[in-house]
Amino acid sequence: MDLMLRLVYLLLLPGFCISLPFFLHGRPKGGFLGLPVGSANRSPPPEKWFTQKLDHFTSSDHRTWSQRFFINDEHYKPGGPVFLMIGGEGAANPEWMVQGQWVQNYAPQFNALCVMLEHRFYGKSHPTKDLKVESLRYLSSEQALADLAAFRVNISESRGLADAKWIAFGGSYPGALSAWFRYKYPHLVYASVSSSAPMLAQLNFKGPKKVAGLEKYFRLCEPIDASDAKDVSNLHDTIAQSIAGVIQYNRDNRAFEGAVGTNITIETICSIMTTKGSKPFESYAKVNSLLLDTYKEKCLDVSYNKTVQELREESWKSEASEGGRQWTYQTCTEFGFYQTSDLTTQPFGQHFPLKFSTEQCADVYGTEFTQTSIQSAVDWTNSEYGGYNITVTRVVFVNGDIDPWHALGITRDLNAHSPAILIKGTAHCANMYPDAPNDLPQLIRARESVKKLLTLWLS
Ligand SMILES: *[C@@H]1O[C@H](CO)[C@@H](O)[C@H](O)[C@H]1NC(C)=O
Ligand SMILES: *[C@@H]1O[C@H](CO)[C@@H](O)[C@H](O)[C@H]1NC(C)=O
Ligand SMILES: *[C@@H]1O[C@H](CO)[C@@H](O)[C@H](O)[C@H]1NC(C)=O
Ligand SMILES: *[C@@H]1O[C@H](CO)[C@@H](O)[C@H](O)[C@H]1NC(C)=O
């Protein structure tokens, strides 16, 4: 199995609502784009480039770089608002400019101008010439929010939109950014829709995982050294996360982005797991095989050293530069979010404790990363943005209750002007995707509730 797939499993990125959730080894992601489901009959707008500051917080530093963005003005009418889709920890997929609720359902109703800004250090937005640790110091949510602010001010001025209200959208990590943008720059963003956002940074995210039993040896690429604790951790972690990944993205209609394997659902896995007469060992092997086949991988690679080696690659040409190296860095410097086996009630054994993830930070980025340093970084993130205590108005927090990440989300109304919508039975970012014939009634209602809020806020 390739690095990126392994990483997605490993980190269970909170994100990738805004980009392909599954990367494939050594192949351009575009190469796997299938025909979009419910295609918008319209090709996405061309990419554009914005001159951005490298360091927003050092006025004497004048270095700049080019940040990618997209604009769709087909629904815009003078007097309409600007909808801003915030990019996250992967390439900004231009399909979102013509598909998804924000552009297909909401923008026509409100005559909105739709813009999307790619997150620094992801996709084609490269602020530095490499990914060395001294370059990555310019990768943070604070710098990303400042990018959004600078972009917002420039677009307003250069397009004569001084009076337009801006509404931020985002799912997962960008869902948090969407709320934080409103919090940090309330004069620049009038309201936010924050979907499946982990609002609390947390070192040890002991998310519930609902599958029983786990054994070893699953079409491994190389024989595992059972005496190497880290490889054993990596194996357990990889398989646990692969199943968690299916749960996170269950039935989310993201096939339009070119995502592969969206027909593998909790039901698929459960029916394999509960086949009468087969041992848990065999069932896991079957699930693993199904996932490998779906992603066209020959074998499962669980070598910890190889993972670390690949994550250490500092070039934009490396595979890890598709996001693995950068996002892992953000977990080590801002968020934690390590899904560990430390919760004793979960079924995956105790083979990937917190120590496994925090030591990986040190192994990849340097020995100055320790559990203590990562814990204080996580604490700082919550001090900076408020965690669950964020003070904002006109932000709606939308979550799905089978998405493990809702555990770190705001799922009860924050105040009279910042409601929460918790959708029963939907997964990560479900409310953002295009309509699908099998959408649950409560999902359809949630999308309409967001529309009503936008009507209220924009009236
Ligand atoms: C907006 O940014 C562009 C660079 O991308 C720059 O050329 C232009 O002068 C800026 N306009 C304003 C009004 O700030
Ligand atoms: C998912 O869809 C693919 C392509 O249509 C198909 O080959 C595969 O058998 C399906 N898998 C499941 C579990 O339904
Ligand atoms: C991984 O690398 C470490 C440090 O270089 C080494 O001690 C260990 O034996 C390696 N493990 C495997 C399984 O290659
Ligand atoms: C929120 O505020 C309460 C009361 O002041 C405090 O006990 C709690 O730690 C805060 N939670 C977060 C996540 O900041």
Describe the structure in your own words.
GO terms for molecular function: dipeptidyl-peptidase activity; serine-type exopeptidase activity. Keywords: Glycoprotein, Hydrolase, Protease, Signal. The structure is a single chain. This protein is an alpha/beta fold and 459 residues long. It has two domains: 207 residues, no CATH class; 238 residues, Rossmann fold. The protein has 13 helices and ten strands. Strands 1-2-4-3-5-6-9-10 form an eight-stranded mixed sheet, sandwiched between helices. It has a two-stranded parallel ribbon with strand order 7-8. Bound molecules: 2-acetamido-2-deoxy-beta-D-glucopyranose (4 copies). The site of one 2-acetamido-2-deoxy-beta-D-glucopyranose (NAG) has 5 residues, from β1 and α4.
CATH class of the largest domain: Alpha Beta
CATH topology of the largest domain: Rossmann fold
Amount of beta strand: 5-15%
String of helices and strands: HEEEHEHHEHEEHHHHHEHHEEH
Terminal CA distance: 51 Å
Signal peptide: 1-19
Protein name: Serine protease K12H4.7
Organism: Capitella teleta (Polychaete worm)
Family: Belongs to the peptidase S28 family.
